[in-house]
Amino acid sequence: MPYDERQLVREIEVKYRVDDLEGVLTALKSRGIEVSDPVHQDDQAYAPDGWQFGDSKIGVSFLRLRTVAGRHYFTLKQPVDNDQACLEYETEVTDREPMHHVALHMGYRPTVRIVKVRRTASIDGCSLCIDDLEGVGGFVEAERMVPDDADAQAVQADLAALVDSLGAAVVRTTETYDSLVHAAQHGPTANLDDSGFLLTIIPNERG
Asked: What's the pTM value of the predicted model, to 2 decimals?
Protein backbone atom coordinates (compact mmCIF):
# COMPACT_ATOMS: atom_id res chain seq x y z
CA MET A 1 0.00 0.00 0.00
CA PRO A 2 1.64 3.30 -1.08
CA TYR A 3 1.85 6.02 1.56
CA ASP A 4 -0.81 8.73 1.22
CA GLU A 5 -0.73 11.40 3.91
CA ARG A 6 -4.16 12.66 2.88
CA GLN A 7 -5.94 9.65 4.30
CA LEU A 8 -4.83 7.02 6.79
CA VAL A 9 -5.99 3.61 5.67
CA ARG A 10 -5.80 0.16 7.16
CA GLU A 11 -5.38 -3.28 5.66
CA ILE A 12 -8.10 -5.61 6.95
CA GLU A 13 -7.79 -9.30 6.13
CA VAL A 14 -8.88 -12.82 6.95
CA LYS A 15 -6.68 -15.85 6.40
CA TYR A 16 -7.47 -19.53 5.81
CA ARG A 17 -5.44 -22.72 5.60
CA VAL A 18 -6.21 -24.62 2.40
CA ASP A 19 -5.07 -28.13 1.50
CA ASP A 20 -6.32 -27.94 -2.10
CA LEU A 21 -5.10 -24.70 -3.71
CA GLU A 22 -5.96 -26.02 -7.16
CA GLY A 23 -9.55 -26.45 -6.01
CA VAL A 24 -9.68 -22.78 -5.01
CA LEU A 25 -8.24 -21.74 -8.38
CA THR A 26 -10.81 -23.88 -10.16
CA ALA A 27 -13.64 -22.34 -8.12
CA LEU A 28 -12.49 -18.84 -9.03
CA LYS A 29 -12.12 -19.62 -12.71
CA SER A 30 -15.56 -21.26 -12.80
CA ARG A 31 -16.99 -17.90 -11.72
CA GLY A 32 -15.13 -16.08 -14.47
CA ILE A 33 -12.67 -14.48 -12.04
CA GLU A 34 -9.24 -13.86 -13.54
CA VAL A 35 -6.31 -15.13 -11.49
CA SER A 36 -2.81 -13.70 -11.93
CA ASP A 37 0.26 -15.67 -12.87
CA PRO A 38 2.23 -16.90 -9.84
CA VAL A 39 4.93 -14.63 -8.43
CA HIS A 40 7.69 -15.45 -5.94
CA GLN A 41 7.81 -13.27 -2.81
CA ASP A 42 10.80 -13.26 -0.47
CA ASP A 43 10.10 -11.42 2.81
CA GLN A 44 12.24 -10.69 5.83
CA ALA A 45 10.19 -9.83 8.90
CA TYR A 46 11.47 -7.61 11.72
CA ALA A 47 10.23 -6.98 15.25
CA PRO A 48 11.28 -4.41 17.86
CA ASP A 49 14.08 -5.47 20.20
CA GLY A 50 12.48 -6.99 23.28
CA TRP A 51 9.35 -8.26 21.50
CA GLN A 52 9.00 -12.07 21.33
CA PHE A 53 6.59 -14.43 19.60
CA GLY A 54 3.74 -14.97 22.03
CA ASP A 55 3.70 -11.30 23.08
CA SER A 56 0.77 -9.14 21.99
CA LYS A 57 1.16 -7.46 18.60
CA ILE A 58 -1.53 -4.82 19.16
CA GLY A 59 -0.08 -1.32 18.90
CA VAL A 60 3.39 -2.66 18.03
CA SER A 61 5.02 -1.55 14.75
CA PHE A 62 6.62 -4.33 12.70
CA LEU A 63 8.77 -3.98 9.59
CA ARG A 64 9.09 -6.08 6.45
CA LEU A 65 11.46 -6.15 3.49
CA ARG A 66 9.95 -7.83 0.42
CA THR A 67 11.51 -8.71 -2.93
CA VAL A 68 9.30 -9.51 -5.92
CA ALA A 69 10.71 -9.90 -9.44
CA GLY A 70 13.84 -7.97 -8.54
CA ARG A 71 11.94 -5.04 -6.94
CA HIS A 72 12.17 -4.30 -3.22
CA TYR A 73 9.51 -2.94 -0.83
CA PHE A 74 9.83 -1.63 2.72
CA THR A 75 6.68 -1.91 4.83
CA LEU A 76 5.56 -0.94 8.33
CA LYS A 77 2.54 -2.70 9.81
CA GLN A 78 0.93 -1.93 13.15
CA PRO A 79 -1.94 -4.18 14.30
CA VAL A 80 -4.79 -2.07 15.67
CA ASP A 81 -7.99 -4.03 16.32
CA ASN A 82 -6.43 -7.49 15.97
CA ASP A 83 -3.41 -9.10 14.31
CA GLN A 84 -5.09 -9.04 10.89
CA ALA A 85 -6.32 -5.43 11.00
CA CYS A 86 -3.29 -3.19 10.58
CA LEU A 87 -2.23 0.33 9.88
CA GLU A 88 0.15 -0.06 6.94
CA TYR A 89 2.70 2.06 5.10
CA GLU A 90 4.75 0.76 2.19
CA THR A 91 7.27 2.21 -0.22
CA GLU A 92 9.49 0.81 -2.95
CA VAL A 93 13.24 1.01 -2.30
CA THR A 94 16.11 0.61 -4.73
CA ASP A 95 18.38 -1.56 -2.58
CA ARG A 96 17.34 -4.15 0.01
CA GLU A 97 20.61 -4.46 1.92
CA PRO A 98 20.86 -0.82 3.13
CA MET A 99 17.24 -0.97 4.32
CA HIS A 100 18.12 -4.07 6.36
CA HIS A 101 20.74 -2.01 8.19
CA VAL A 102 18.27 0.86 8.58
CA ALA A 103 15.91 -1.53 10.38
CA LEU A 104 18.71 -2.70 12.66
CA HIS A 105 19.72 0.85 13.54
CA MET A 106 16.08 1.70 14.26
CA GLY A 107 16.09 -0.91 17.03
CA TYR A 108 14.57 -3.82 15.11
CA ARG A 109 15.81 -7.38 14.75
CA PRO A 110 15.11 -9.92 11.99
CA THR A 111 12.69 -12.65 13.07
CA VAL A 112 11.70 -15.02 10.24
CA ARG A 113 12.12 -15.29 6.48
CA ILE A 114 8.77 -15.72 4.74
CA VAL A 115 8.94 -17.20 1.24
CA LYS A 116 5.86 -17.90 -0.82
CA VAL A 117 4.40 -18.21 -4.29
CA ARG A 118 1.38 -15.94 -4.66
CA ARG A 119 -1.46 -15.66 -7.13
CA THR A 120 -3.98 -12.84 -6.84
CA ALA A 121 -7.52 -12.08 -7.92
CA SER A 122 -10.03 -9.27 -7.42
CA ILE A 123 -13.57 -10.10 -6.36
CA ASP A 124 -16.34 -7.81 -5.09
CA GLY A 125 -13.91 -4.99 -4.35
CA CYS A 126 -11.56 -7.24 -2.37
CA SER A 127 -8.11 -8.63 -3.09
CA LEU A 128 -7.79 -12.39 -2.88
CA CYS A 129 -4.33 -13.91 -2.41
CA ILE A 130 -3.76 -17.60 -3.07
CA ASP A 131 -0.46 -18.47 -1.40
CA ASP A 132 1.83 -21.47 -1.22
CA LEU A 133 3.86 -20.67 1.91
CA GLU A 134 7.21 -22.43 2.01
CA GLY A 135 7.48 -24.87 4.91
CA VAL A 136 3.88 -24.35 6.02
CA GLY A 137 1.38 -24.99 3.20
CA GLY A 138 -1.43 -23.39 1.23
CA PHE A 139 -3.42 -20.35 2.30
CA VAL A 140 -6.08 -18.01 1.01
CA GLU A 141 -6.22 -14.39 2.18
CA ALA A 142 -9.05 -11.98 1.50
CA GLU A 143 -8.18 -8.37 2.20
CA ARG A 144 -9.52 -4.87 1.76
CA MET A 145 -8.07 -1.42 2.29
CA VAL A 146 -10.41 0.72 4.40
CA PRO A 147 -10.52 4.17 6.03
CA ASP A 148 -8.90 4.44 9.43
CA ASP A 149 -12.26 4.65 11.22
CA ALA A 150 -13.78 1.55 9.59
CA ASP A 151 -15.26 -1.23 11.74
CA ALA A 152 -12.59 -3.94 11.39
CA GLN A 153 -14.75 -6.77 12.72
CA ALA A 154 -17.57 -5.92 10.31
CA VAL A 155 -15.13 -5.84 7.39
CA GLN A 156 -13.63 -9.16 8.45
CA ALA A 157 -17.11 -10.70 8.66
CA ASP A 158 -17.77 -9.58 5.07
CA LEU A 159 -14.44 -11.01 3.93
CA ALA A 160 -15.15 -14.30 5.69
CA ALA A 161 -18.51 -14.51 3.90
CA LEU A 162 -16.71 -13.94 0.61
CA VAL A 163 -14.33 -16.84 1.25
CA ASP A 164 -17.28 -18.98 2.37
CA SER A 165 -19.00 -18.30 -0.97
CA LEU A 166 -16.16 -20.03 -2.81
CA GLY A 167 -17.32 -23.38 -1.41
CA ALA A 168 -13.80 -24.53 -0.58
CA ALA A 169 -12.83 -26.59 2.48
CA VAL A 170 -10.74 -24.16 4.56
CA VAL A 171 -9.55 -23.67 8.13
CA ARG A 172 -9.46 -20.13 9.46
CA THR A 173 -6.43 -18.87 11.35
CA THR A 174 -6.12 -15.62 13.27
CA GLU A 175 -2.33 -15.74 13.00
CA THR A 176 -0.08 -13.82 10.63
CA TYR A 177 2.48 -15.44 8.34
CA ASP A 178 5.43 -14.58 10.55
CA SER A 179 3.85 -16.38 13.50
CA LEU A 180 2.86 -19.36 11.36
CA VAL A 181 6.38 -19.72 9.94
CA HIS A 182 7.90 -19.35 13.41
CA ALA A 183 5.55 -22.01 14.80
CA ALA A 184 6.42 -24.37 11.93
CA GLN A 185 10.13 -23.91 12.60
CA HIS A 186 10.19 -23.80 16.40
CA GLY A 187 6.84 -25.12 17.60
CA PRO A 188 3.80 -23.11 18.73
CA THR A 189 4.33 -20.30 21.22
CA ALA A 190 2.72 -20.27 24.62
CA ASN A 191 -0.37 -18.33 23.62
CA LEU A 192 -1.29 -20.55 20.65
CA ASP A 193 -3.04 -23.86 20.61
CA ASP A 194 -1.18 -26.97 19.43
CA SER A 195 -1.86 -26.24 15.76
CA GLY A 196 -1.63 -22.45 15.76
CA PHE A 197 -5.04 -22.34 14.05
CA LEU A 198 -8.51 -21.24 15.00
CA LEU A 199 -10.39 -24.34 13.88
CA THR A 200 -13.39 -22.96 12.03
CA ILE A 201 -14.32 -25.38 9.25
CA ILE A 202 -16.31 -24.14 6.28
CA PRO A 203 -17.77 -27.19 4.53
CA ASN A 204 -17.54 -27.64 0.80
CA GLU A 205 -21.20 -27.23 -0.11
CA ARG A 206 -20.49 -27.93 -3.75
CA GLY A 207 -19.36 -31.46 -2.97
From this structure: 0.82
